[in-house]
What we know:
The complex is a heterodimer of chains A (about 375) and B (about 425). Chain A has about 375 residues and is an all-alpha fold.
Amino acid sequence: MQTVKISTYQAATLLTITMLATSILLVPSNVASEAGRDAWLSFILGTLLGMLTALLAAALAQKHGNAGFHAIAEKVMGSLPGKLLGLLYLAFYLLLTASLIREFASFMATAFMPLTPISVFVLLFTVSCICTAYLGLEVIARLSEIVLPVIVFFLLLILFLQSDQYELSALLPLLRTPPENILRGAFVFWGWSGQVFFLLLLYPYLEKPGQALKASLIAVSIVGFFLTAGAFSLETVLQYPLTERTVFALLAFVRLINLTGFLLERVDAVVIVIWVAGAFVKASFMLHITSISLAQVFGVTESRHFLLPLAALNSALSIFLFESSKELETFIHFLWPIITLFFLVLIPFLLYFLSFPASKRSSAPGNKGGGQQ
Amino acid sequence: MKTRLLFLCLLTAYTLLFTGGCWDQGELEELALVQAIGIDYLPQEKKFEVTTSIIRPGELGAGGMEGGIEGDAEPMRLITTRGKTLSGAMEQQNAFLSRRAYYAHNDVVIVGEKLASQGMHLILDRLTRERDTRLTLNVFVTGDNVKEFLRGGSRLEISLPKEIRQMKLRTSQRSLRGEANLLDFIQNLLQSGQDPYLPVVEMREETPTSPREAEIGETGKDGKRENEVNGENINGEKEESTENKVGYPKMYGTAVFREDRLAGFLDGYETKGLLYVEEGLIDSRKTINDPEGKPGEIVLITIDNSSRILTEVVNGKPRITVKIEEEGDICCQTSATNLFTPENFRRMEQSKEEVIKGYVKDVLEKTRKWETDIFGFGNKIKQNHPGYWEDLEKGEWREEIYPKLEVEIQVESNIRRTGLIERPPFYEYYQ
């Protein structure tokens, strides 16, 4: 069954989109409200934290012969606790996907189509994602290969188009934000850069698992570069107190583009391209991950059957979980980093820690954890 | 093959769902394109008065195809409404419209003096929160009646809003007005240690520029005409004569704010002092006396200027040094002096430096009186000496330190070229 293989490059693009897609639009204003003028430093720190997460994920996988996360969990913790942990993770994936879909719908409704009910965005978006997820990981990976250059091109374009507006003195006074605020900002960004953890789920499908760490580090670096450059541009063009006050800082930034009067202005659509393309690939990927994890936890061979109910669940959750955009914002800002810390860092670290004695035991046949797999 | 075709059809139908715009679809012919908004505040009634200038769909577009606009057809329509809030007043507009008022293509906002004195906070939120206005909006302050102002005509462009927009865009010559849009205003407002300013527009009533139009407008024969020429008005003919007059926009000067409240106006000449420090000055002319003391004057043009604000805190007292570098050419001379000598160049440069210093000092004195720091000296102090800045109390900078702040202005001025002639054509004649 597992003949699906993706290349190192595809893994890198997929992980990059997973981290970049939603963070570029949502995170800058949240980080700015914590770290103020020094938000760029938070992003650099957050990138480093993301790299640590990647190192942890790669170390964990390599310890267990490049197995996927759920296989590792069952191997280390034993079958039943492993499956229970898998269920917990399924809830986490659901939460992530649901909030992602809601972010997409909320953005479209706030910034472009206020009269359209968000359930319409949710439905249309999820239906497209089901189609993609149904075609499997290879298709999603190829899609990310196509989409990422587009996103990167447009991001570079908007940074370039505003380059004459940069006012470096707006970064001053440098480092007057209390260090704990900068760390809090980094922590908020970690909620996204930590998603490099999904590398662990890609491991069984990699052509060259040995290069997985390289791919993930490159992905984190690209994301870190764009978020830091974005924060830098926002601080110098939109400037600090205003960045914090916007809901979608990148959108506010793009709306300022006004080249020589009316040669090139109103290029907001660029943000839609970045956002829709990125969120679409990410949501398809997440939907796929949820379905294969579900299949793995329950030992089902065909994971595609889960797609439709999962998508329905996701759409419903995305609408019911959050009353308003304020709740969504609070979730992203305060709750999500903690959830991330728990699921993407603490538990993998625990598994890594536990796997030291377990790895010795697993080499002996008849072991409880490894034997049943 | 058939299923494939079916799938493609479904895909197309599905894509159409996305691209139709759902509930938010809007057609151009269903929109009333607002080209300028005028906002003023009526203190007695505590109400906003909003005037929008909307393109009349038939008039503008048809121009090219049908051979120009007919004589008296107005390209714009004005609607004035009132409301307790800006948003509320804007809603009232719908009562007069057959189309949806569309503000996204508007980039001229005229703010009345009364509103500006009440505080710009009354409108800033509406202009930044909703997605139909942009931070690049051009905001102007006018001392005139906003409604009357928007009723004015245009000289070179097709309509008044277009003319104002073009005036603002004309970057090749800007020396008489402060340069700021909504974003600059908000940024300056949000930076502690800086106060915002906005360009000023005013209206000047004139008889329309074409003399033919003026005569057509006159109803009476000789008697009335004489009266009008003499400026006298008998038996209520005043209405008639003012009807002939049309207000034309003039962009001149700077409105200076203290926080978000209007503190006062700088005229065009005073604005130069601000622009020299803000590096915004292009194509500015200034007049100096003849370097050898002969009768007549010399006019110099500024081609390029740059400035730096240096700060230092000595013994707990801040000091500001403004370094202005300026260079330009000679553009006119009415005295019969040979300027083309090293001494005269040096003398002219010196007197030019004095003139520039004078400009800056004038503005400085005025803003000190108003307690508003439009140069952003406080902001620079905050950037360079954050420790000192954080010890200040709220309002201390503006009220106590800025009015007595030690400011040194250093100008380095150069004259690079003399234009196409070295000595005036009448040089020998007046020797």
